[in-house]
Amino acid sequence: MAKNRHATLTANKKTAPQWRNLHSRVLSLLLKLTKIEAAILAFAVCSVALGLGNSLQSDPSTASIEEVIESSKTEDTKSPINTDRTTIALALPSQNSIPKTDTEQAAYYSQAKFTIDSNTVQADFSPAPLSQPASPKSVAAAATAEQSSTAVKRIHQTLKKGDNLSMVFDRVGLNARDVYQVVQSGNEGKALTRMFPGEKLEFVLGENNQLEQVIRVKSPLESIHFIRNIAGDKTYFEINRVTRTADIRKVYRSAFINDSLSLSAQRADVSQSITMNMANIFGGVIDFVLDVRNGDQFTVVYEEHYLDGEKIDEGNIIAASYSNRGTTYNAYRYTDPDGDTGYYNEDGVSMRKAFLRAPLDFTRISSSFNLRRLHPITKVVKPHRGIDYAAPRGTPVFSAGDGRVSASGRSKANGNYVFIKHGESYTTKYLHLHRRSVKKGQRVKQGQIIGQVGCTGLCSGPHLHYEFLVNGVHRNPRTILKKLPKAKRLNANLKAEFMASIESTQLQLASYSSHIKLASAQ
Question: What is the CATH number of domain 364-483?
């Protein structure tokens, strides 16, 4: 027993220098390998690691590492290869930590692990019993992988009445420090404190509920991102504006009028906003209460905007036609070289007259212009210097033309009222409004909403009292329009450009209208 033990110790002393010599030769040779040679070596060693370890234990001189590499080369790899040297990262233990006995050394080297990618071959000699620190690059890669696998939470918040920014942050589990860091990011950060109910925020939270991003969703196509960054020991939020582009699809709709424009358009799946815009386009030539007849037909071509396959809103009306009492009116959208956009008929004449024939979509005229009318409430004969348009409470009221608001207020008789001055000669007045949408001194465009139909002041039911004055004298709104200046016409050069731009739309509009007529006749 003692002799065997002495023989083992003697053998260990003889083989230890050989292992150290082999270790140095391995390092020297690996550093000379090309990418392909290193990869081949890695696979070869993986497949023979256990056998090589056992053979080295019994007789270290039976196979050299050079022979292993040379035998694993193919015909292609034996020839010189002009490629960049591959970086070999070795996580080897120190010389003092190498096992002392043959058995321990063989087990140690047989547990070598190889990791291969396109740029780096790593030989990680770190068996479980002698775990060593990984290289900095390995640590960084592991940290990146761990970070990418960390679950990210997205929380959507819509501001409610009475909310402030701190309350919204608190609802998603964030504190005052998070609020401060975001608000200090600049003017956009400070603007978060002035948001209104209904606006939307999205929070991106990382590990341990750490705030990574705040996204202010201004619209489906526009958002402002506040992105967490770290510089030294300072945390700050960087601002990034994100703008997306919607897919635009052209939509055709057509219908026959059976009752009113609004109801017929609704049945044809035309939204209220498109219907209102169409009424404004033709508002200078058609009175959509008094002029409309059953059997009238409209056709409209407009844009719909889609994002990620979902409809987000509607765009501009490209073209529209309206057939009324045997006359067809066509309107085409056109933008001139100065950037001014309007709707013109096929002769290049603007559809936009100086004033709308009626400033709202009304149900009926409840009281006409009459200088000797008996007032329904006071029972006194008094001039009625305007027209009363009966309509449901809340019906939008439009400015009849471009101008500036000269008065916006409330009185006992008129209720809520708005007066608009159109140049030097013309003034329009709107009385008994439920709500006013403009202020004194504000500039308005034709068709812009200035209020809603109501029954404020002395009135017997919801309606709009509308007056039209020329040089301070009241005129009948329904007859004065014929005496006003005509619509503008495109000059010869612009007309040629306009006609060329609408040629294909004209054909499509006519074709679609004819198709609807044929379908309805069958």
Answer: 2.70.70.10
Q: What is the pLDDT of residue 118?
A: 36
* CB burial string 175-204: b at 16+ within 10 A, e below: eeebbebbbebeebbeebeebeeeeebbbb
Q: How many CB atoms lie within 10 A of CB 446?
A: 20
What distance in Å separates the CA atoms of residue 418 and residue 410, rounded to the nearest whole number? 9
Segment holding 241, helix H or strand E:
strand 234-243
Helix or strand or coil: residue 264?
A: helix
Q: Burial of 41 by CB count in 10 Å (0-12 exposed, 13-18 middle, 19+ buried)? A: buried
Using an 8 Å Cβ cutoff, are 243 and 307 in contact? no
pLDDT per residue over 482-503, tens digit each? 788 777 889 999 999 999 999 9
> What separation in angstroms does the CA of 2 have from each of 6, 7, 8, 282?
6, 9, 10, 117
pLDDT at 378: 63
CA 513 to centroid of chain Cα atoms: 35
- Can you tell me whether residue 20 is helix, strand or coil? helix
Q: Which residue has the tokens 């040089």?
A: 471
If one compares 147 and 29, the residue with the highest pLDDT of the two is 29
pLDDT tens-digit series, residues 51-89? 544 444 444 444 444 454 455 444 444 444 443 433 333
pLDDT given at position 360: 83
The DSSP element (H or E) to which 167 belongs, if any, is helix 165-171
Residue 454 CB burial class (10 angstroms; 0-12, 13-18, ≥19) = buried
Rounded to whole angstroms, the Cα distance separating 374 from 105 reads 118
CATH architecture of the domain 153-243 equals Roll (3.10)
Residues 91 and 138 sit within 8 Å (Cβ to Cβ): yes
The β-bridge partners of 314 are 304
Segment holding 114, helix H or strand E: strand 113-116
Are the beta carbons of 330 and 510 closer than 8 angstroms? no
Q: How far is CA 466 from CA 156, 289, 290, 388, in A?
A: 46, 16, 16, 6
| Entry pTM | 0.56
pLDDT digits 0-9 by tens, 295-342: 999 999 999 999 999 999 999 999 999 999 889 999 999 998 888 899
Look at residue 9 and tell me whether its pLDDT is greater than 50: no
C-alpha to C-alpha distance for 243 and 223, rounded to whole angstroms: 7
Whole-number CA gyration radius for the chain: 42
In the chain, domain spans: 2-134, 153-243, 364-483
| CB-CB contact of 321 with 333 (8 Å) | no
